[in-house]
Design goal:
The chain has four helices and no strands. By secondary structure, it is an all-alpha fold.
């Protein structure tokens, strides 16, 4: 018999992480979007760029903290043995990143304005 390529239980863990990441990540992203400064064309480019960079850094910290805390939470309920590919959270992050950025409309407007991208 050949080597197993697809691991259904592992795939289910990835889906579970992605669902949790989507709910938690999008909620925090919307909170950030409502809390941080709104897009204003009258601001200097440097100020808008600084706001973008701060918000992107906050997103990175959010992703990291969310991944660690949710993984620790999951281990309380699921006896997840170490898998060949590591934590399913790393694959689920690929799904949450675009969702979190899409929930931050002010960030998208700022990025579009600075780099001339229509959003």
């Amino acid at each position: 018999m050949g080597k197993q390529i697809f691991y259904p239980i592992y795939a289910l863990y990835i889906c579970l992480y992605a669902i949790i990441f989507t709910i938690v990540g999008t909620s925090f992203a919307k909170l950030m979007d409502n809390t941080l400064p709104e897009f204003d064309e009258k601001k200097h480019y440097g100020v808008i760029l600084a706001e973008i960079l701060v918000q992107v850094c906050l997103n990175c910290v959010l992703f990291y903290a969310m991944r660690e805390y949710i993984h620790a939470f999951m281990l309380l309920f699921v006896n997840m043995r170490t898998h060949l590919y590591g934590s399913p959270a790393k694959f689920a992050e690929l799904i949450i990143s675009p969702t979190v950025f899409m929930a931050q409309t002010n960030l998208m407007k700022k990025i579009g304005y600075i780099w001339g991208i229509s959003v």
